[in-house]
Amino acid sequence: MSLPAVLSRRPSLPSPRVLRTEALSGLVVALALIPEAISFSIIAGVDPRVGLFASFTMAVTIAITGGRPAMISAATGAVALVVAPLVREHGLDHLLAAVILGGVLQVLLAALGVAKLMRFLPRSVMVGFVNALAILIFTAQVPYLVDVPWTVYALLAVGLAVMVGLPRLTTAVPAPLVAIVSLTAFAVATGLVVPTVGDQGALPESLPVPGLPSVPFDLATLQIIAPYALAVALVGLIESLMTARLVDEITDTRSSKTRESWGQGVANVVTGFFGGMGGCAMIGQTMINVKVGGARTRISTFLAGVFLLVLVVALGDVVALIPMAALVGVMIMVAVATFDWHSVRPATLRRMPRSETTVMVSTVAVTVLTHNLAYGVGVGVLVAMVLFARRVARLVEVTAVLDPDGTTKIYRISGQLFFASSNDLVMQFDYAGDPPDVVIDLSAAHVWDASTVAARDGISARYAARGTTVTIVGMNDNSRTRHAALAGHLSAGH
């Protein structure tokens, strides 16, 4: 291959404009990550440094290993809720061991093709996931607005006004960054006494150092950490893959979900070795990065982690002065931008099938009540499956035609035959009144499971008891193969 051809295949360097966008967006994300990481550390019952180090290592590692450019991974509330009991009962070192094992499990799940399961997530579950996240992001800000001086509300109002109004004038600088810098400068210059980032917990003064968790490497330790590691792996993958899918839709691009799965695993392994609490994709910070900041590459994710470490270690005294009102305003704007307002409009709800709305509401309700995205998504998928099976089962029809000579009756069955639709199939035939020959025509049906074959055996057995001959016709190849493998080997069901 010629040199020009080789050079043409090299990725082009981003333009200065793109670099500026990525860098500024990463800076805003880093500022927003600080109070979030501290809050999640408190939820997990660990020192704030553990959450901050996790956010740094997760962001930097996933920028390299992840499959979805511009997505932000860091310490999250979902993981914090999962590991909190482990920390209370066994301490930090067991947490780090669980995070490392959870990362290994994520890599294994990626190799097994877990990302392919995303195709089974209905759109209504996705909408519920997004709306629930928006509600959780908003409600997480409420504690910062309770029992605070009135000046906090004034700062919040100004910050929101800046973030709403500035983009109408210029998009050269991210509005959230302008709001944070201006409100901090004003608060410091006027000496306002308001809650600040420094009030949330101590910031680290040194770089994270790699090391092994101080736990016995034996079966007893594995029995303790394994359930928590599995929970970390599953919750992290669900939240990360759904966030990646959301970013795909927002940016109109595709990403590798398999790479994202094992990339999350690698990031958690690295995080555990560096003393972090583990994490996964963060919907709020990702929306800041993608929708507010306009970032589209891995550069913003990498810089978010780097800026975070620089801010809390080298500029900790300055960062500690940022009013919480400024960051709360940023997160409120993220919540508003994340929520799918179209999904709750009266016109949309009137047009949408009730089953779809039920799935969305179930996902939102369970997620908000439990603060666990895995539970919400799991319930949403389960409700969608039940309602889908119920709806499809109603589409099965049985029609009967008697031959003119009166010696043969033909039953034509149409629809999808599976456990929900075939269990009542036995009662659709007139066993006592039918002629000596019965033909069951399945040319407009499809046999999906053993329940249908068992029902067919039950029908034949009832007719055989009366001396009636039953002939099955019209089965497609797939149905015929399944029927041939199972017929006569299942309970007759009578």
TrEMBL record:
GO CC annotation terms, alphabetical: membrane
CDD domains linked: STAS_SulP_like_sulfate_transporter
Annotated localization: Membrane
Every STAS domain range: 410-494
Pfam families for the chain: STAS, Sulfate_transp
Residue ranges the record marks as coiled coil: none
TM annotation in the entry: 23-46, 58-83, 95-115, 127-146, 152-170, 177-197, 217-238, 306-339, 359-388
InterPro entries: Membrane-Transporter-like, SLC26A/SulP_dom, STAS_dom, STAS_dom_sf
Keywords in alphabetical order: Membrane, Transmembrane, Transmembrane helix
Record membrane topology: Multi-pass membrane protein
PANTHER family (alphabetical): SULFATE TRANSPORTER YBAR-RELATED
Protein name: SulP family inorganic anion transporter
Native source organism of the sequence: Pseudonocardia bannensis
